[in-house]
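User: quick one, fold this
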Amino acid sequence: MDSGTLVAVISGATAVVAAVVTAGLTYLLIKRREREADWRGLKLDYYKEYVSALSGIVEGRDTPEGHIRYVDAVNGLTLVASSEVLRALYAYCDYSTSRNPNKSLEQHDKILTSLLDALRQDIDPKHRRRSDNQSFRLITVPPDMRSSHPVAQ
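Assistant:
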């Protein structure tokens, strides 16, 4: 085999190997991104259920069934939540328990904000945390609607 043919064969083989390696890496990277997106989607579903269950136990809407749903949602988060989310979740649960006699709305909202920021950060790592002067708060059913509105009962 002459040197020109050898160079052509080596060049062709190198091009084929490079194309196969590039295609393989591209496939693996795409699959990785798809898995990450699926995982974030699963987390989002759990986090939406948690926030919905939390809404079901606010003042004026709390029922035994609502509390059971909330406990189930909290326990379900242990499957998907990051350790940072779980720390914030347990801090919120410890603070908001009926056994805590030292509650304030300001402290509640601060701990809730930490929890919801952790949830957002876990779903989207590019999420910027809220500044200290912004906070989340729960909306409750107005007292005059608690007995007449079917959802509030």
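User: anything notable?
Assistant: The mean pLDDT is 87.
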